[in-house]
# Entry
Amino acid sequence: MRELLTLKGSTDGSSTTGTFSLYSDMIYGSVSYVMIPKGLKAKVWCKRISGKAVEVIIQFTHDIYAGGSTPSPDTADWTEVGHEVLVSEGELILEKRRPLVLRGYTGKEAFRVRWSQSSAGLSYVEIEVELTDE
Amino acid sequence: MARITDELGLCLDNTLLTVYFPPIQRALVFRVLGRANKGYEKYDYGPLPLSSGDSLPKLSPEGGTATVPANGVIPGRSYTPTGLSFSLTGAYDESDMWHYPKDESDRLYHVHMYVTPSILRCDLQVPKRYTQPTFQKNRIVGGVDRDFGYRRGYLEVIHLPDLVYGYRFANDMNTNFYTKVTFVYAEYLVELVKDPELVYEALAGLKPTYWYTMPVSGVDESVIRAIREAYGIADGGYPIVKVGTPKSEALAGIREVII
# Structure
């Protein structure tokens, strides 16, 4: 079983830090984090970053519920697992690398993508995520 | 050994197909005479039959309900508590394209269902509303809303006449997904094998047969009735041939259920 999701997002152009709101052709609406189903892996194969200079940070949590019964992304304990830097306006394409593998141990795991900029501007991110049991 | 299925996982013409019910250790043996849709096995059905505004329960630990935001979209962290049926205008039962009458028992539908996204959990209710996955002699009920008793993205189903099945789905991610269902199916022209010798050989493993095990932990009376009325076979099918059973005794058991 495998499914490939292309997740896209953009900075808001006015904040120097924030969390990307991710959308995709398969997703109705958008999400600020993506849960990893129990027993599956999320493999981040590719990252494309464009626009103004930006740092793109992938964060992972083992418990999006933060001990409760509803998702609490604001209080969950996030760990940085990936960090890319677009040093100046342009485009950075990171493909055909070994994937970043994030595992769903309990079904409460999740990841999100954040940005950080020295001066706010419009930047775009696109990541290819494979969800698989292999 | 001769092949009995093609590259689609469907039985070739002039092969045997056995449908086995483990809980009652009974089986039906069919001879596949042909395929009514040879060369046209793929049906891109479209989105799951979920309507905007439908309310679906949410998975544990959230609880509560989620609202289907648009037709064919399964909300994040939700599941379908009752199996879905796939409507088709003009079909015998327009609300369920896989439901067909007992007087058309010369047909048998072998379905490989693929759902996109393939991470969706799937299970089958036979008949509809009868949740089947269990653990330890039905002590624990499984299924799409539990930690076990489902398969992601795919189901193989044999539809018997006069029975309504339910396809259940769950989305254990937090994303609302657009969905798509594809059926790869065969509308077989079949005859139920009633020659006790041939049934014996199929059930004893002496003749090659495509062996389909119904994904059930219990067999409802309605299933046994449907088999009796459609095929003239009592008790839900031919008894499985057990190790050490003399052939004469096995043949007598097979003859006994033919009405």
About this structure: The two ends of chain A are 8 Å apart (CA to CA). Chain A has a mean pLDDT of 96.
